[in-house]
Structure formats: C-alpha cells, structure tokens
Design a protein that fits this description.
This protein has about 475 residues and is α+β, with helices and mostly antiparallel strands. The protein folds into four domains: about 55-155, Trypsin-like serine proteases (Thrombin, subunit H); about 170-275, Thrombin, subunit H; about 285-370, PDZ domain (Pdz3 Domain, Roll), CATH 2.30.42; about 385-479, Pdz3 Domain (Roll). About 20% of the residues lie in helices and about 35% in strands. It has twelve helices and 25 strands. The strands form four sheets. Strands 19, 20, 21, 22, 23, 24 and 25 form a seven-stranded antiparallel sheet that branches. A six-stranded antiparallel barrel has the order 1-2-3-6-5-4.
C-alpha cells in the first residue's frame, strides 16, 4: 500500500470514530500516533558525540603513581608450637618494602600544565607520571592535595614551555537531572575510554567519599581507573571530576559520582595562589530537618538545616544566627542537609558576604554572613608528648577554627590529638588522631600546657576521658 493509501485509511477511520461518538454520545479514547521516524538524511544517520570527544579528549590524561609500602613479614617459625610457647602472638618478624602502583585519570585545566585529579589517586606517592592522550609522558609534582575534598592539583615538569590542551569549566549548578553527559578516563588501565549517560541525580550527600559529600550522580559507566577523569556536558565543558562508584564487585553498576566543578575551581584557585587552602568559616552546625522537626518549627515540608550549636564570636553568631534557626538557602541555592550547607559555603571566596534564607518561629528572613578565613585563635601550641605517660608519642594541639578546618574536625575548643603514630605508646594503648582530651583525673583539660602539667603530676595513675566521634570514653592506666 502506498503512502497515499495510508492517508485515506486514517481519514476513513477518523470519520467512523466521529460518527460513533455522535450516535452513542460517549467519548471515544484518542489513539496515540507513532511519531517515530526513520532517519531521512546522512546527517541524521551519523549523529555522534565524536565532535565533543575530539575537543575534550586531549585534555584528559592518565595518572600513574608509585609509592613504597612497608609491611611486616612473620618469621617462618611463627607457627611452630615450641616457639609460640615463648613468644605467643608477639613472635618477632621482619619488615619488607614493596612498591605499590596506583592508576587514575586527570584533567588539564591550565595550558601551562596544571592537572586536577583525585587525592586518593596520588596519596603518598613517591613518583607521579602523567601520560597525555597523544602518549607524551611527563613527571609531575603535587602543588596541592586535600583528602577532605579528595582533590589534588599537579604540575607537569620539564615541559619546555609547551602549551597544553585544556578543558573549560562550567558551573555544575547549570545541570539538570536528565541532561546528557560524557565520562572520559582510563578504566582498568585499558586506555582512554568514553562512556555516555545522563545526570541521574544532583546534590547527592550520602556517598561518604569525602568530607563535603555533595556529588553529581550519573549512569555513564565509571570504573576503577576513571577516578580523576572528566565528566563533561554537551557543550564540551567540565562539570565534574569522576570520583567514586557504587559497586559490589569493583565494576560499574550504573551509579557513578562526580565532584562538582565549583569545588574543583576552589581547589585550583588555591593551588594557583599558593599558601594554605582556606575556606570560609561559618561557626555554626546543625542537622537535617526531619518531618517531626518541620511540624514543630511550623515549616511546610522537611527541608533545610536546623542549627543546634553556634560558636561564640563566629561569623554566624555575629550575623544573628541562633540555635533553632532553619537555614534553607545559600545565595538562592537550596540546602537540605549539613553536607549541602557545608558545600555551598566552601565554594564561596573569602571576603564579602553570603545571603542565607532563614526560618525562625515560622517566619522567613534573609541574613547576610561575612565570608572570613578561620582564625588561629587560640594558638595551636602543637606539642609532642615525650614523658613516660599513656599519651607518650602522641602530638596534641589546642583546637581552633583553622585547625578544625584543616583536619576536618568539628568546631570547638579544648585539646585534640592531631597525630598518634601506630608504634607509639599512645597508639598501642588505643588513642587515635582526632581524640579530644576532655579530662585527666577529674580535672578538665582546656589547653596543651595544662595537659602536659597534669600528665606529669598524675603520680603513676591516669584516668583519661576523651571524646571520639561524639561519644565519651574513659580509660584508666597505672604505672
């Protein structure tokens, strides 16, 4: 049957349907037309992501790192019952070194050779090599690396002044769920690979990969080796750095996570300026609003962060933020939990102000908060505990906002253990980095100097209370 014949048939069916509707007086369901079309031209047949890949791929690199790892080797006699009678589980053994290699990806963001990748790709590396898309290879040094962001900035060495291809950066806030994206990286070390998918979710805050926990979720296949690679939009610009996957066996299950480009820019600018990485200090903390909290606070729906602690003298306190306030927006961007609030503030430059939308007693208001660097007050007074006490070998410091941000601790005051080596006395007795020393022999500890004096004056008996992960613990020791 010709195309004209199909048209006449549709006309006859439409007339019959109208007649039946007129006679019966009842509505007749409409028949949905099939709007699918066969490609009519060569251009339609050859639609492809190739132009985007051709533009972006040269700026995506492979990152190889090597580091020396020490591991304890048990003596061959360790399982012999005769020797175990004398040594038990503490049987002597040796230590051997081996070279561990790590594979990941990276993105060139500056034509002089600045590369962004994940912190976990180069963590502890003794040697880093970067291989470009055209197989040229360069040694690289770490300019900036931050485990809390899981981002690192590398500089290519001995480039001879060569200029490199780069990717432009676009705000991830411009993305919407359903947008097409491409992931470019080096999965499993097979070579540069491109996968496509969509943005399947935004503002994921329960991934647990870094301390900011604010991710773009995509179903573009992301596998081991893709870490540090590019997630690009349909304009060929970088919207995120691929960082993690949800997996049961190490392979892609269609859920990948990328660090938003706003955080990448924050890290890049810090590396270019030099000096410490400083993020704005807010000075207030809270928790996500639940349905019960929303009802009690007279909020339409569970949304925002309800503040439970405000540090005296902080920017939040000076702006009038109070316990019980609910923060729902930062500069017009919604926040639904503490991770989202932390991310929104972290991507703001120090200096100037940020506008918070706050609900208090069912009434809304906008509050301007200064964007300030965290202060070094009180001074850290970082001290290694050298005397023969339970804390021997540990390094203690006075907690201040700058230290809290640097180490990822919660804001507060008091004495915190910033380093506890595994083989130290403190490490063997169960102390760990991040422990807050609250009291010693029922004496509240407020400074490092006070802690040193109290340890020496204990007379061989130490009752030490610490706070770890929000929980109080008490440990007793005698000489």
């Amino acid at each position: 049957m010709t195309a004209v014949g199909f048209g006449r048939t549709r006309l006859v069916l439409a007339i019959l349907a109208a007649a039946l509707l007129f006679v019966s007086g009842h509505a007749v369901p409409a028949v949905a037309e099939d709007n699918s079309q066969v490609p009519q031209s060569r251009e339609q047949i050859t639609l492809s992501f190739a132009p985007l890949v051709r533009k972006a791929a040269p700026a995506v690199v492979n990152v190889f790192s090597r580091k020396t790892v020490k591991e304890r080797v048990a003596s061959p006699f360790a399982a012999d019952p005769f020797f175990r009678r004398f040594f038990g589980d503490a049987f002597p053994g040796g230590v051997r070194e081996r070279v561990a290699q790590s594979l990941g990806s990276g993105v060139i963001l500056r034509e002089d050779g600045l590369v962004v990748t994940n912190h976990h790709v180069i963590d502890g590396a003794d040697e880093i090599r970067v291989v470009l898309n055209d197989r040229r290879e360069y040694k690289a040094e770490v300019l900036r690396s931050d485990k809390h962001m899981d981002l690192a900035v590398l500089r290519l060495l001995d480039t001879g002044g060569r200029k490199f291809p780069t990717l432009a950066i676009r705000p991830s806030d411009s993305l919407e769920v359903g947008d097409l994206v491409l992931a470019i990286g080096n999965p499993f070390g097979v070579g540069q690979t491109v996968t496509s998918g969509i943005v399947s979710a935004l503002a994921r805050t329960t991934v647990g990969v870094n301390d900011f926990n604010f991710f773009i979720q995509t179903d573009a296949a992301v596998n081991p080796g893709n870490s540090g690679g590019a997630l690009i939009g349909m304009d060929g610009q970088l919207v995120g750095i691929n960082s993690a996957i949800y997996s049961r066996d190490g392979g892609s299950l269609g859920i990948g996570f990328a660090i938003p480009s706003e955080m990448v820019l924050t890290m890049l600018h810090a590396a270019e300026k030099g000096g410490p990485l400083l993020l704005p200090w807010f000075g207030a903390e809270g928790e996500a609003v639940t349905a019960e909290m929303a009802e009690a606070a007279r909020i339409d729906r569970p949304a925002g962060v309800i503040i439970d602690t405000v540090t005296v003298g902080s920017p939040a306190a000076r702006a009038g933020i109070q316990q019980g306030d609910v923060i729902t927006e930062v500069d017009g961007k919604p926040v639904d939990d503490p991770q989202a609030l932390k991310f929104r503030l972290a991507t703001k430059p120090i200096g100037g102000q940020v506008s918070l939308h706050v609900l208090r007693g069912g009434k809304a208001r906008d509050v301007a908060v200064a964007l300030e660097a965290p202060p070094e007050n009180p001074p850290r007074d970082t001290t290694v505990m050298k005397d023969a006490t339970p804390l021997q070998g540990a390094t203690a410091a006075n907690l201040n906002p700058a230290l809290a941000q640097e180490k990822g601790y919660a804001d507060g005051s008091g004495v915190v253990l910033v380093e506890v080596p595994d083989g130290s006395q403190a490490g063997r007795l169960g102390f760990a980095e991040g422990d807050m020393v609250v009291s010693l022999n029922d004496q509240r500890i407020t400074s490092v100097s006070q802690l040193v004096r109290a340890l020496s004056a204990a007379g061989g008996r130490w009752q030490i209370a610490i706070r770890r992960d929000g929980q109080m613990r008490s440990m007793s020791f005698t000489r």
